[in-house]
Amino acid sequence: MKNINGQLTEDRKITFDQGDVNSVSVHGDLVAVAASDKTANGRVYFINADSGERL
Amino acid sequence: MVTFFPNGKYVLSANEGEPVEKYESDPAGSVSIIEVGYSSPADSVCTTLTFSESDSEKSKDGVPVRTHDYLGNFETDYSFDKDIESEYIAVDGTSQYAYVSSQENHAVAKIDIERKKILTLKSLGYKDYSQCGVDFVEDGKINIVSEPYYGLYMPDSLTTFEVDGKTYIATANEGDDRGETSNLSIRISEFLRTIA
Asked: Which domain holds residue B23?
């Protein structure tokens, strides 16, 4: 959870360095990713589907 | 589980809040409605709905939503919202309501998206295995029989569909219980030894 960085790999799959990532949904070029660590600190991250940049 | 609303206006998140082993941490189960700010997604507005006992509704056969009443001694500061485990979300065809499964509570919540309000958390009741077949024995063989036992619907994934203007919900009843983190579960063979 301390260092989640979305990366777009060559096969266009988005990967994360760390974190308990458990769900993903896409709308247009926006990707929503849910991540949690079994505390109350769950997060939803937004990622640009084309660039892999975390928004 | 996270899912975009069909028109992309919202992202819905089912926040399960599972307990860790021995309940050192047990966050509240909840549902978040995130209004997506497309110009700056980081500034999206999030509303999180938590459950209270007043949201719960018994099934037609009188089965309540199961929570801490059955947990035993693992958790000393339990509460209704902590024991709700929101799993999966489906949006209905009108994009007005979302349905959220809560597996360990064998229940489904109905949420009004625009009002950002939990309308109900309804127990799915008992499944009567005298009326349908099931293979009770884990022995590598198939032996489907009907027996006078009751089971619980414990839904994980769910989806909605419409027939003649009426919304139906289909649920995949995984039956994944709280396992080793509670004393809620016992194998039938062990139970039979206990009462012998």
From this structure: 2-195
